[in-house]
Amino acid sequence: MAVQREDIATLLARVQQAGASNFQDDPSVKGELLQTLNVLQREIEGPAAYLSRVRQAPQVNMCQLMAIEMGLLDAIVKRKGQSVDAHTLAEEINRDELLIELLYPIGGKLKPLLRETKAAGKAQSDLQTPFKYTHGCSLFDYLEKDAEHKVYFDDWMSGRRSGLRREWFDLYPVESQLVTGADRSSEAVFLIDVAGGKGHDIWSLSSRMPGLPGRLVVQDLPRTFEDYMPPEGIEAVPYDIFTKQPIEGARAYFFRSVFHDWPESRAQDILTHTAHAMKPGYSKLLIEDLVVPDRGADMRQASVDLTMYFVPEGIERTAGQWKDLLEYAGLQIIKIWSDGSGMESVIEAELKAQ
What we know:
Blueprint: H1 8-20, H2 27-55, H3 59-70, H4 72-77, H5 86-93, H6 97-101, H7 110-117, H8 130-135, H9 139-145, H10 147-159, H11 168-171, H12 174-179, E1 189-194, H13 200-208, E2 215-220, E3 234-238, E4 252-256, H14 264-277, E5 284-289, E6 291-292, H15 299-310, E7 317-318, H16 319-328, E8 331-338, E9 345-351
Parallel strand pairs: 1-2, 1-4, 2-3, 4-5, 6-7
Antiparallel strand pairs: 5-9, 8-9
Helix pairs in contact: 1-2, 3-7
């Protein structure tokens, strides 16, 4: 029997009707209202956002556990309802301010990790993450040693955008910002998808905008390209992002969801190698990633931020943090192109004028 989907207007009407009644005193009406709200949320958010919410649901309990272990809840209660910022709390309980902003360790190893290594009091660069604590190595070292999970990871990265209505080039005007003024010689490289897996993003761009000037290149670790044939018109070049960028003077160096995997020092290394390869006044750096608001981040942004912090040692950055990071490598932000949802942004940067 097929399930009949209800339109959003009908669901809203049911919510309004239930809300006008004294639902707090009627368990049946209250239950129906909650059920309708759940259906309404699923209808609005769509499959991709729903799966993301379900996948990250356990983080709430883990955040509570860590807050208890750190003494954070006690410090908040003592203030008897007075507002307090993360900096003040960090000083009061002698913990890392950034950790308070990003409350979320994962898994059953959380409590022994906090108690045995006191990781909650360390700076980000010294942090022993729950993933390292459990597996004895970083996420990416683990994937390099485990071929099966590397395949799963690459397939997830390729498929996670399936069904999404908006691509990065829907936000960023490729024609006016890149195609105009591009070198049209056959040797010129138009765009490099750095750490781009099997080239899903660059292939989407090529399919949407055929006839782009110059070569299209995807770079990733050698294992990614084992038994892999890139789509027609895409060149696959093995490359480690922590080494010198071998292709100089490309029109654009594109990174999607790369920098959030790494702490500042490692992200600085990646950017420095990229900046050295860029041609002044010509090359662009494009970063598709989260840009977290300085205040009022929603649950989705916070969940992703915390996941990055405690699994691969990374961080989702605010606009100010992005500015500081790029300036370290001699780069400046030209514009941040956002979709308004708070989950998708493209940062456009170039070399600073000398």
